């Protein structure tokens, strides 16, 4: 079995629930003998989306990790919409698309997925409420 995980952040210093779940699943799959790669960004913080890790390939607990830089993020607009969503509980369709477009993005990651998606039995993208994951899927 050959699988890839697409997560916005990855590593033992990342404490997010979905990211922690992806890491646990990836490491367990490697122990079963599956080929596993994680495709992620260079970001450590979901508050700043700063590229903290170097771009490129590394291995952690036998899992291959490919990191790609965050290249665009319209922070002020995205935060404004995040606040509106938290206050109202919903966004209009136009606001939702604007939220997706203004979020943190990695065109290099998207290009990698496009080039390599047919080489895997499954690609698992999570967590769903992240613009980068929406575009990756």
Summed up, what is this model?
This protein is of the alpha/beta class and 137 residues long.
Topology:
Elements: E1 2-6, H1 17-31, E2 35-41, E3 56-60, E4 63-68, H2 75-88, H3 93-102, H4 107-116, E5 122-125, H5 131-136
Strand order of the largest sheet: 3-4-2-1-5
Helical segment tally? Answer: 5
Helix content: 40-55%
Query: Tell me, what's the shape?
Result: elongated
Structural class: alpha/beta
CATH topology of the largest domain: Rossmann fold
Order of helices and strands: EHEEEHHHEH
- How many β-strands, per DSSP? 5
The quaternary state of the protein chains shown equals single chain
The whole-number mean of residue pLDDT values reads 94
Radius of gyration: 15 Å
What percent strand? 15-25%
Whole-Å distance between the termini? 20 Å
Number of domains: 2
Name the poorly predicted regions: none
Q: What's the level 1 CATH class of the largest domain?
A: Alpha Beta
CATH architecture of the largest domain: 3-Layer(aba) Sandwich
Largest sheet: 5 strands, mixed
């Amino acid at each position: 079995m050959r699988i890839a995980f697409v997560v916005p952040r990855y590593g033992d210093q990342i404490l997010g629930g979905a990211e922690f779940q992806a890491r646990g699943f990836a490491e367990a799959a490697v122990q079963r003998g599956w080929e596993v790669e994680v495709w992620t960004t260079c970001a450590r913080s979901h508050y700043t989306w700063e590229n903290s890790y170097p771009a490129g390939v590394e291995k952690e607990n036998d899992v291959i990790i490919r990191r790609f830089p965050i290249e665009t993020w319209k922070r002020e607009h995205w935060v404004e919409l995040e606040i509106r969503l938290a206050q109202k509980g919903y966004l209009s369709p136009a606001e939702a698309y604007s939220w997706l477009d203004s979020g943190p993005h990695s065109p290099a990651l998207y290009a990698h997925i496009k080039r390599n998606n047919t080489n895997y039995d499954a690609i698992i993208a999570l967590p769903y409420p992240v613009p980068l994951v929406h575009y990756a899927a």
